[in-house]
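Async update (no meeting this week)

Hi team, since we skipped the sync, here's where things stand on the single-chain job. The sequence we agreed to prioritize is pasted below, unchanged from the tracker. I ran it this morning and attached the output directly underneath so nobody has to dig for it. Comments welcome in thread, and please keep replies under the output.
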Amino acid sequence: MRVNNDESVHKEYVKQLIAGVAERVPATATGEGVYKLAGDKRITPIGKFLRKTSLDELPQFLNVLRGDMSLVGPRPPIPYELAAYQTWHRRRVLQVKPGITGLWQVTGRSRVRFDDMVRLDLRYAISWSPWLDVKILMRTPAAVIKGAY
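Output:
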């Protein structure tokens, strides 16, 4: 990210995404649309590479080692994202510890609407087991390779 950037564009996009009115943008690799903020001027060329390869997630391992996060679980929300949540959306972050990867990332990633992402996170919380975590961790590398936009 660039220094001293304006996050208002991202805040507005997040509100639209949560409200279900964000539009899909074409994904060059697959031709299908994804829910992403297109042409984000805040991201540097190096940042674009880090995001595309999901290497930007590596620092989250420090949060896992500190016990603030798990390897598998719902993505932690940004404060202004949480402020836009409907009541039922909040359950996704109250039922289990946030994680680096999760059922949403290996199932739909940026191809599903926000409400569907929340439903996947809630399904994970309800059906959690160590075996489910192992299956999600095993599917994560393929999801990163296939779905990084």
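Quick observations from my side:
The chain has one domain: 8-147.
The first helix runs from residue 8 to 19.
Reply here if anything looks off.
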